[in-house]
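One thing: can you check what follows?
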Amino acid sequence: MPFIKSDGVEIYFKDWGPKDAQPIMFHHGWPLSSDDWDTQMLFFLEKGFRVVAHDRRGHGRSAQVADGHDMDHYAADAFAVVEHLDLRNAVHIGHSTGGGEVARYVARHGEPSGRVAKAVLVSAVPPLMLKTANNPEGLPIEVFDGFREGVAGNRAQMFLDVPAGPFYGFNRAGAKVDQGVVQNWWRQGMTGGAKAHYDGIKAFSETDQTEDLRAITVPTLVMHGDDDQIVPIADSALKSVKLLRNGTLKIYEGYPHGMLTTHAEVINPDLLAFIRS
């Protein structure tokens, strides 16, 4: 299995396709793994791209270390993969927490090193999820405390309830629950470490990425469903696109947080069109 070491931590990655093709690197959400992007990776592989994805530290097959579960380390680990594979002119696509990772990566590493061409934030957490004095529209701390209680109390059950409910919109009237999708979410989550998942809640909810977004100059596509029950569009995408210097917003009516899975037949061509534009 392919691993690299970032600050002494083993990070697992996938690298498929021609090494001389334009690379697309995918960054997964909490508490999942690079497997969450399999549909997109196969789609873009068939289109002739080089596709790369890694498991965030503490997630999937990467080392279950006790520390470093924050956006700075997430971005640095991603950069370690990029440098190891010598990815240039790359497109970085992040979902949810992975969108925060992309924003921090592009601002701190990708643009300064000249290795990034474009970025995509899908149902992403920036600029800030938590309600604060300066961010009164955010979600109250009690929401994230509930996530922490779920991870600490019965992570296995929580990792069934979240995908069976709000993550994919399966709790909406008339929705048909896809058990395979739910079980795959559970599988990915339970492969990772509880400490990483617990600490990661603070990372995705309390990291203010306003300055990251302001620093990004490459073309950036912001994609969000207006029925996202995990990362409300008003707290994220609508604010992010105003902070980006070269941002484009695409809103999907009725789409849930996990739209890259439930609506891949729409999301994938839209990603392709942006990358080729």
In short: The domain at 3-276 is CATH 3.40.50.1820 (Rossmann fold).
